[in-house]
Amino acid sequence: MATAMEVGEEKARVDEGPELDASDDTAHQISHDHWLQVSFVLTTGVNSSYVLGYAGSTMVPLGWVVGTVGFILAAAISLYANTLLARLHEVGGKRRIRYRDLAGYIYGRKMYVLTWALQYVNLFMINTGYIILAGQALKAIYVLYKDDDALKLPYCIAIAGFVCALFAFGIPHLSALRIWLGVSTFLGLIFIIVAFVMSLVNGISTPSRNYNIPGSHVSNIFSTVGAVASLVFAFNTGMLPEIQATIRPPVVKNMEKALWLQFTIGVLPLYAVTFTGYWAYGSSTSTYLLNSVKGPTWVKAVANIAAFLQTVIALHIFASPMYEYLDTKYGRGKGSAFSFDNISFRVLVRGGYLTINTFVAALLPFLGDFMTLTGALSVFPLTFVLANHMYLKARKNKLPASQKAWHWLNVVGFSCLALAAAIAGLKLIVVDSRTYRLFADL
C-alpha cells in the first residue's frame, strides 16, 4: 500500500513529456546533467568522509542489533521520502528548483521562509561538520609523524576552511563539478578501502572486543536518541529539489533512477566501513575511524590525505544552494564565470560564508553532536515531515483514506522523533562543552 507510492497514478506523469519551465530564474545551470552525474552527486554526499564517523557515533551507542536494523531502516525510509520529494518536483505547471519554492507553492509565503531557514541551518551545520572532519584528517596526518602537540585541531580546522574556500572560488555552480565528482569518488574509495581493510585485519588479530554500550542509563537515552538522528543524517542531503534541478528531462524518471542507484550500490561502502569498524574495535571505536586503525604509517597518511581532499569537494555540494541564492540575487551568473567581476564576488561572499563556518567548527568541534542536532533540526523536518505532508497537500484529492492515514502517521511520528532528537542533541553539546574548553584540541 504505502510502499507502492501511488505508482499507477504517477506512471503517466513520470514518462517523458514536455519540459516544464523553472519556477524562477537562476544564475546556475538547470536541466543540464545526465542522471548518472546526479547519482554521483548523491553518492558523494553519502560516502563522504562522514562515513568514518558512523561506527563510533552511531554503532557504539546503539549496539549491534539496534544499529544494524537502524541503518537498514533509515536507508529504506530515506529512499521512500526522497522519492516523494522527487515526484513533487513538477507541480502547478512549473519545475520547483528549490526546496523553498516547492514549500512556498504548496503552503504560502510563511512556509517559504521557514523552509529556507530550516534548509540553511541544515546546510550550514553539514558544512561545519565537513570542516571539522577535514581538520581532524589534517591533525591525524600530523600526529602520525610528530607527537609534539604543536599543531592543534583549531589550527587544522582553520587550514581546512581556507582550502575549502579556495576550491569554492573556482567552481561556479553544482553542474561544474563534473570531473571533480570522479576525483571525489576515487578519493573516497581510497579512505574507504583503507579503513575497511585495516579494520578487518585489526579485528582478525584482536581476540576479543567489548561491545557493551558505554555510559549510565540516563546518558544512554540521550545518546540513543542522538544516534537515531545521526542515522537519518547519513542518507539525506536536505537539498533534493536543488540537485534535481540540474537533471535532464524526463526529470522525475531520471531522478528516481539516480535515487535507486544511491540507495542500493551507493550505500554499500558506508555499510562496509561502519559495520567492519565497529566489529573491529567495539565500544572503543573512535568517532573518526582512522584514529582507531593500526597499520603502516604511510597507508594511514594516504587515507587521511584522501579524506581531507574529498571533504573539500563534498562540502561544495552542500554549500551550492547558498551560493546559488547569492549568485542569483546579485546577478552573478551573466558573462564568463571566471571574469574578474564574478571571481571577486565569489572570493568576497563565499569566503565570508566559509569563514563563519570555519569559526563555528573550531569553536565547537564536536562532530557527533553536530550530526545529531542537524538530523533533529532539519533532516527530520525537511526530508520526512514536510515530504509526507506536502505529498498529502498536493495529492489530497487523489489519495484513498488508507494512504492519507499512512502519510499522517509519518508526519506525526517523525515530528515526535525530531523533537526528541533536538533535545538530545542540545543536551550532548552542553555536556561536551562542559567537558572540553572552547576551541578544544580533541
Automatic annotation (TrEMBL):
<feature type="transmembrane region" description="Helical">
    <location>
        <begin position="152"/>
        <end position="172"/>
    </location>
</feature>
<keyword id="KW-0472">Membrane</keyword>
<feature type="transmembrane region" description="Helical">
    <location>
        <begin position="179"/>
        <end position="201"/>
    </location>
</feature>
<dbReference type="Pfam" id="PF01490">
    <property type="entry name" value="Aa_trans"/>
</dbReference>
<dbReference type="GO" id="GO:0016020">
    <property type="term" value="C:membrane"/>
</dbReference>
<feature type="transmembrane region" description="Helical">
    <location>
        <begin position="111"/>
        <end position="132"/>
    </location>
</feature>
<protein>
    <submittedName>
        <fullName>Probable proline transporter 2 isoform X1</fullName>
    </submittedName>
</protein>
<dbReference type="InterPro" id="IPR013057">
    <property type="entry name" value="AA_transpt_TM"/>
</dbReference>
<keyword id="KW-0812">Transmembrane</keyword>
<feature type="transmembrane region" description="Helical">
    <location>
        <begin position="221"/>
        <end position="239"/>
    </location>
</feature>
<dbReference type="GO" id="GO:0006865">
    <property type="term" value="P:amino acid transport"/>
</dbReference>
<feature type="transmembrane region" description="Helical">
    <location>
        <begin position="347"/>
        <end position="364"/>
    </location>
</feature>
<feature type="transmembrane region" description="Helical">
    <location>
        <begin position="259"/>
        <end position="281"/>
    </location>
</feature>
<feature type="transmembrane region" description="Helical">
    <location>
        <begin position="370"/>
        <end position="387"/>
    </location>
</feature>
<keyword id="KW-0029">Amino-acid transport</keyword>
<keyword id="KW-1133">Transmembrane helix</keyword>
<feature type="transmembrane region" description="Helical">
    <location>
        <begin position="408"/>
        <end position="430"/>
    </location>
</feature>
<feature type="transmembrane region" description="Helical">
    <location>
        <begin position="62"/>
        <end position="90"/>
    </location>
</feature>
<feature type="transmembrane region" description="Helical">
    <location>
        <begin position="301"/>
        <end position="326"/>
    </location>
</feature>
<feature type="region of interest" description="Disordered">
    <location>
        <begin position="1"/>
        <end position="23"/>
    </location>
</feature>
<feature type="domain" description="Amino acid transporter transmembrane">
    <location>
        <begin position="34"/>
        <end position="425"/>
    </location>
</feature>
<keyword id="KW-0813">Transport</keyword>
